[in-house]
């Protein structure tokens, strides 16, 4: 993997050209300056911080979408891969693609585990099965991708029930897996010393954990909660210096996938209107950029230029990828948000005036 400036920033520059057409001139000028700064700073990152060849990677939510694409690409890099999901039929189809992509077919190993991430205490069983399959060794990398989204207005009849379901899958599914694998990795008998090759725990959040939008009440809080857990664990693993673990959190935007098709069935029309200028990405593209960010050693793993901007505007006490760059970018983001929020709120008010009271507008089933 090439970690040069061009490898990590060219996709962002392409997105910048697309996004800038809908931005005002002051915002576009600020963003262009930040993009140039990112390109310059990217020249200093060359080391692969997450090598996978010969190592074992476990991914939840890997029967479709981004998780499936990530599993295939990690197989292409020489990893042994365990994919986890509920549907055995889709798991078998995905595993065939993962196996076919192997860099070293004679030595790499692949399997699947059927599990429902929303079930209480599912993760301990999954990790035990993974360890047994892996010759008594735990996976070296665990990537929690499983998730769902049920967009609707907060005043809709089923919004709280949807929020509970989203929290079970998106937050508790990842929280339980992280606890199960950390109890294994951080056990005294598994100490490698501070210079040992670190394990990697990867969460998958959303750009909505950086910038909330109307219509995602049942979903957005689950990703904010996941970010809070990731921040906490990124500090907590330092309490075990002889068991090195790196924590990461990925922030995808819109991904064209079966999950996206499902969420559009309940998504309010005003949400669709506000999202219309956001470029949708394929699962392969998002997975490729996420893996590049992990290999570059990022904690906050952005997969789009817009996501990179949003991260620096709301970092608080979170770990930084680059203290200098993130701080400088953070100075400018409030100026951009002034224009963006003003425009979005104006659109929402105008939409309500034209379409009528939200209670009287047709609901998606």
From TrEMBL:
Reaction(s) catalysed (UniProt annotation): sphinganine + NADP(+) = 3-oxosphinganine + NADPH + H(+)
Role summary: Catalyzes the reduction of 3'-oxosphinganine (3-ketodihydrosphingosine/KDS) to sphinganine (dihydrosphingosine/DHS), the second step of de novo sphingolipid biosynthesis.
Chief location bin: endoplasmic reticulum
Compartments, as annotated in UniProt: Endoplasmic reticulum membrane
This protein's name: 3-dehydrosphinganine reductase
Transmembrane parts of this sequence: 23-45, 201-219, 323-341
Similarity-based family: Belongs to the short-chain dehydrogenases/reductases (SDR) family.
CDD domains, sorted: KDSR-like_SDR_c
GO BP annotations, alphabetical order: 3-keto-sphinganine metabolic process; sphingolipid biosynthetic process
Cellular component GO terms held in the UniProt record: endoplasmic reticulum membrane
GO molecular function, one term: nucleotide binding
Enzyme class: oxidoreductase
EC number(s) per entry: 1.1.1.102
Pathway: Lipid metabolism; sphingolipid metabolism; Sphingolipid metabolism
Keywords of the record: Endoplasmic reticulum, Lipid metabolism, Membrane, NADP, Nucleotide-binding, Oxidoreductase, Sphingolipid metabolism, Transmembrane, Transmembrane helix
Family matches, as Pfam families: adh_short
